[in-house]
């Protein structure tokens, strides 16, 4: 079977970011399928374009597992990817390039569009119609609703058109996939999508990988390291983390916070740390997928803190499964499906309401002073990912969704 995927922010095994289709695609190729991914050239965390691609409209690369990635031209129009207008330029230029590239791809058996951005669904749908094959729409974030809630989309006409596009795609897609049960429930209750049309395919993880972290452990020896790795986007509440660890430092100078990644808040956080002279916070640039495991292994506790947003409660915080796969206890300041995952399903950490500075301080001290509880949370989380979200398990689950979509077309 030939699987064609439109995914603007696809990240390979050596890039920072979520390796969703890299891991799923490897399993599909391993089982004899052909996987082609049409992707953008700009990494969504760093905002940087892949090197050596200047002057090309599109180019093909085949990774070590056999996935064919077609990188297409896109630009931030000189405005910087992290600006709103820069991202808008990136989206629009990618969509044009991706559509043209899709026309030249050998006829697939299925076309998948991975959103956001939501407009990628329209491109994939057009290509699927021209190729006369089924179309699956993957909803990983609730666009346009989340964009409206965050203030990124305010124009009434644009909002109406976005909702019309959303309804069109939900209707035309043979199947919808999501990466959390919260999104599935939202689509059923708020968008009137039939339950049997939606499949939940979480973000897969790899387990039992070897990571070299001795030099990192040596660097952090004698410290209690709380780590976050990933996007520094607007939905995250890093200020409450800075407040909590800076106050703890006054009583316990072994506690440190390490933030690895990039995003809209990175420069502001750096300026705040310098201005207030916060001594126990380390900011690091994004780390390739092949190296990030070593940093997670060297940490003592992993943390995720999300702003109190209505729609984000439907989404899994992206790094939680990765932290559990590395046997780390978790502190989560967030409501919704992520809280249910950590507190109830996996029982792998301490959950708190968003913005609970006092609760974060108590949780850090509770874990620091209770090594057995840390080990129990770590073991519980590892067991959960082994049983539910490994790449082979989810690749097979996704493949069954693809087969069902094709059967409806036969």
At the fold tier of CATH, the topology name of the largest domain is: Rossmann fold
Largest sheet: 8 strands, mixed
Helix/strand structural class:
alpha/beta
N-to-C SSE string, H for helix and E for strand: EHEEEHEHEHHEHEHEHEHEHEHEHEHHH
- Number of domains as seen in the coordinates: 2
Distance between the termini: 15 Å
CATH architecture of the largest domain: 3-Layer(aba) Sandwich
Radius of gyration based on Cα positions: 21 Å
Query: What is the averaged pLDDT score?
Result: 91
Unreliably modeled segments = none
Give a written overview of the molecule.
This protein is an alpha/beta fold. It folds into 2 domains: about 1-205 and about 390-405, Glycogen Phosphorylase B (Rossmann fold, 3-Layer(aba) Sandwich); about 215-390, 3-Layer(aba) Sandwich (Rossmann fold). The protein has 15 helices and 14 strands. The strands form 2 sheets. An 8-stranded mixed sheet has the order 3-4-2-1-5-6-7-8, sandwiched between helices. A 6-stranded parallel sheet has the order 11-10-9-12-13-14, sandwiched between helices. Helix 6 links the parallel strand 7 (about 175-180) and strand 8. The radius of gyration is 21 Å and the shape is globular. The two termini are about 15 Å apart. The mean pLDDT is about 90.
Brief synopsis:
The protein has 15 helices and 14 strands. The protein is of the alpha/beta class and 410 residues long.
Write the layout of secondary structure elements.
Blueprint lengths: L1 E5 L13 H11 L3 E6 L18 E5 L5 E5 L11 H20 L6 E6 L4 H12 L3 E5 L5 H5 L6 H17 L2 E4 L2 H10 L7 E3 L13 H6 L4 E6 L8 H12 L5 E6 L5 H11 L4 E4 L4 H10 L2 E5 L14 H6 L4 E4 L3 H9 L3 E4 L4 H12 L2 H18 L2 H17 L3
Helix pairs in contact: 1-15, 2-3, 8-13
């Amino acid at each position: 079977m030939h699987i064609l995927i439109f995914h603007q922010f696809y990240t390979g095994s050596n890039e920072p970011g979520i390796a969703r289709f890299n891991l799923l695609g490897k399993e599909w190729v391993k089982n004899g399928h052909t996987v082609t991914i049409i992707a953008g050239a700009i990494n969504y965390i760093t905002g940087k374009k892949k090197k050596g691609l200047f002057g090309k409209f599109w180019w093909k690369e085949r990774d070590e597992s056999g996935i064919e990635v077609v990188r297409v031209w896109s630009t931030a129009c000189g405005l910087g990817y992290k600006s709103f207008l820069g991202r808008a330029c990136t989206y629009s230029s990618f969509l044009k390039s991706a559509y043209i590239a899709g026309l030249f791809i050998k006829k697939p058996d299925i076309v998948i569009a991975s959103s956001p951005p939501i407009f990628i669904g329209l491109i994939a749908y057009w290509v699927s119609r021209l190729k006369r094959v089924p179309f699956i729409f993957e909803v990983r974030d609730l666009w346009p609703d989340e964009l409206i809630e965050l203030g990124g989309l305010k124009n009434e006409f644009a909002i109406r058109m976005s909702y019309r596009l959303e309804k069109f795609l939900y209707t035309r897609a043979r199947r919808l996939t999501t990466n959390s049960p919260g999104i599935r429930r939202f689509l059923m209750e708020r968008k009137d999508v039939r339950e049997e049309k939606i499949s939940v395919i979480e973000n897969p993880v790899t387990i039992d990988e070897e990571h070299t972290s001795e030099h990192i452990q040596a660097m952090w020896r004698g410290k209690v390291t709380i780590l976050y790795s990933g996007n520094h986007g607007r939905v995250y509440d890093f200020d409450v983390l800075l407040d909590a660890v800076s106050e703890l430092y006054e009583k316990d100078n072994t506690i440190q916070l390490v933030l690895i990644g990039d995003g809209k808040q990175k420069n502001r956080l750096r300026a705040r740390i310098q201005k207030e002279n916060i001594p126990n916070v380390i900011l690091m640039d994004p780390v390739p997928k092949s190296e990030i495991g070593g940093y997670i292994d060297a940490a003592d506790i992993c943390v995720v803190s999300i702003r109190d947003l209505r729609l984000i409660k439907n989404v899994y915080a992206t790094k939680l499964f990765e932290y559990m796969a590395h046997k780390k206890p978790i502190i989560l300041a967030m409501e919704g499906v992520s809280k249910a995952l950590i507190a109830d399903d996996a029982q792998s950490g301490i959950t708190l309401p968003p913005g609970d500075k006092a609760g974060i301080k108590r949780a850090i001290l509770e874990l620091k002073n209770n090594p057995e509880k840390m080990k129990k949370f770590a073991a519980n989380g590892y067991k959960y990912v082994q049983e539910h979200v490994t790449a082979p398990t989810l690749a097979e689950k996704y493949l069954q969704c693809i087969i069902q979509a094709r059967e409806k077309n036969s």
